[in-house]
Amino acid sequence: MDSILSMTMITLKPIGVLHSRVTRLEEVPFQWMISSLEGDIEIFEEYTEGLQGIEDLDYIVVIFFFHKSTKEYSLIQKPPWSDKMRGVFSICSPLRPNPIGLSVVRLLSVKDNILHVKNIDMVDGTPILDIKPYIPLKKDNEPLNSINL
Q1: Fewer CB within 10 A of the terminal residue: the chain, N end or C end?
Q2: 2 assigned to some structural domain
Q3: Nearest-angstrom CA–CA distance, 146 and 149
Q4: Residue 95 — pLDDT band, cuts 50, 70, 90?
């Protein structure tokens, strides 16, 4: 790869951290869709202004860093839900070239800089990189402004 992009280092700074009772990787559900676990996302003080309006959302997308993942990964892995080997980009494994995770969680409440959420698939202490509103897929004829953001 001679591309300048292949030599670029990307630096990300966490905006917060997840607090939960889940402290061991073995206790973490393998996907947010099957999780009923709750936790608190603490947003660091310098980013709290960015939470304005978040209380109006039912669900949020949480982008996080798999800080407990090993640096070693394979491009072909066997997911826990299948006997078939698959490419890492077709599964949700934390063992990947860039250990970044994405989960859709239910926003239960907001108090100051703490977001109480449900459906977490992260371990206590997980660095939070970003939060975005969850926008469900719209039907072909449905206007975008009819989706409740």
Answers
A1: N
A2: no
A3: 9
A4: confident
Give the Cα separation of 65 and 52 in Å (integer): 24
CATH number at residue 45: 2.40.30.70
Q: What angle do CA 41, 43, 47 make, to 5 degrees?
A: 155
Are the CB atoms for 100 and 88 separated by under 8 Å?
A: no
> How far is it between the farthest Cα atoms of the chain?
48
Q: Tell me: pLDDT of 141 over 80.
A: no
Domain presence at residue 68? no
Q: In this model, does residue 33 exceed pLDDT 90?
A: no
Q: Rounded distance, CA 73 to CA 99, Å?
A: 10
Structural domains counted in the chain: 1
In a domain? residue 131:
yes
CB 16 within 8 A of CB 125: no
Structural domain for 124, as ranges: 34-63+92-135
